[in-house]
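FW: tagging you since you asked about this chain on Friday. Here's the raw sequence from the shared folder, copied in full. Didn't touch anything.
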Amino acid sequence: AEFAEKIVTNDFPSDGLVLLMDEIAYGESLGRTAKFPRNAMAFKWEDEIAETVLEEVEWSASRTGLINPVAVFEPVELEGTTVSRASVHNVSIVEQLALGVGDHIQVYKANMIIP
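HL: got it, structure written out here
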């Protein structure tokens, strides 16, 4: 909680924190798992969530040529910026959620960056 409170005073965005052992030789002696060093721990902040109303779903071509749905909604403040559009990632999510104009939706910035 202490780090999460201090992070908002920084001049740069941060999506988490990595704690690393101060004793380098001991930390290195701990070795690694298949993916990560054992002398460090990573933490991610919880995403800020806002509720808004869906105004429309647009379709946008990605850089790879795929057509992806984009939710357009009443603007909300998230992580210090005004957001009114967000990727829905693919058509199956639109179908699964049965999204329609006028629906109340929750939006967030993944890792404080991408809405």
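FW: Residues 49 and 108 are 5 Å apart (CA to CA).
HL: agreed, and Strands lie at 16-20, 40-44, 49-61, 67-78, 81-87, 104-108.
FW: great, closing this out.
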